């Protein structure tokens, strides 16, 4: 009896001094919810089929798992109402048969959408880099000779494009009749010899199933958490530079850079935890002689602080060259990804689908893709093809911790009309 009393006391004391979330770390919250919800009944009867007792148990588990303590009874009632709405949304979404992805309730389940947008995003869309190389207008190393050289280069390119267009028009007129005959010939050949075009089909299939992932080349750092600070732009900028520096130095390990430095110090165009973009972040670093602090010497704290200029270890990146990918051109984006490295992108993530994404390929109908709609910065590290769903996808690194999504990553449908603006605000870079 004494032994059991000692054992009980030990367990009780451990539960007091152990962080609440760690007690539930091995249990997925959505799995707990699903164990109480009859999905087929819910499908026909809606949220009312979840009685108060069931909701109360789910709510209590959520508060315990994530350590929620509210200031008043009124606040808890308001949070519970928000939680119920999210619960209904996630359950309904996961019951749709044609979904290519799955959602889950998570630590944001008692946040309003407005709170989530404020804390977990932070991209301010600008046009300062659109369709230009960044080193053409960064204000450094610019003189009259460079200006004339760039002007002559643009003029030559303009005349070259005009000549090429003229040649193409002549070529098309010359070959129009031949193309018509060739079309009839191919149709007749296919009729007489079935599968005669298999070579072309094989080429298309090979292209559709192609994949590329910078993570496999050990140049992508671990997923981080921006916490309650809208500085996703700083995380994305640091992540791109980390990969470029690892590629440049051919290092076996990735040197992690300080997103806190970008958040604190790049005030000309960025606004700390209230948003920013790629251009102002790079301009700040160029103004520092292309140097950036290591994460170890300038750690992230989740809020904007006074800019540190001493007592930090800074890495000289070398000459930073950046450019913007043609808006809406996913093919050019894929080429730039393979050629240069991971890409800084903006996305319209203003959806509960992003908020509660768990796994699969996000394929969102009517997702806005205008440049001005972009509200969250992330990093594209690769692309692939799902042979089961028969959908190509982008592999995107996020900054909402590894607990979110697929170990901190999201897959988004590729070549689907610029899904959610995946190529509306995309930038590549190079360190020389």
Provide an overview of this structure.
With 432 residues, the chain is an alpha+beta fold. It folds into three domains: 2-110, no CATH class; 134-138 and 210-431, Cysteine proteinases (Cathepsin B, Chain A, Alpha-Beta Complex), CATH 3.90.70; 144-208, no CATH class. Helices cover 44% and strands 13% of the residues. It is built from 14 helices and eleven strands. The chain has helices spanning 2-17, 20-23, 29-36, 39-45, 52-66, 73-94, 113-120, 144-192, 198-208, 232-249, 259-265, 278-287, 330-340, 352-355; strands spanning 101-103, 212-213, 291-293, 314-316, 320-324, 343-347, 357-362, 376-386, 391-397, 409-413, 426-431. The strands form two sheets. Strands 1, 2, 5, 6, 7, 8, 9, 10 and 11 form a nine-stranded mixed beta sheet that branches. A hairpin with a 4-residue loop joins β8 (376-386) and β9 (391-397). α3 (29-36) runs antiparallel to α5 (52-66) and α10 (232-249) packs across α11 (259-265). The longest helix is centred in the middle third of the chain and has 49 residues, at 144-192. It starts with a helix and ends with a strand. 33% of the residues are buried. The model is unreliable at 10-24 and 130-209 (pLDDT under 50).
In CATH, the homologous superfamily of the largest domain goes by the name: Cysteine proteinases
Radius of gyration: 26 Å
Provide the number of structural domains: 3
What is the chain-wise order of helices and strands? HHHHHHEHHHEHHHEEEHEHEEEEE
GO molecular function: cysteine-type peptidase activity
Pfam families: Inhibitor_I29, Peptidase_C1
Family: Belongs to the peptidase C1 family.
InterPro entries: Papain-like_cys_pep_sf, Pept_asp_AS, Pept_cys_AS, Pept_his_AS, Peptidase_C1A, Peptidase_C1A_C, Peptidase_C1A_papain-like, Prot_inhib_I29
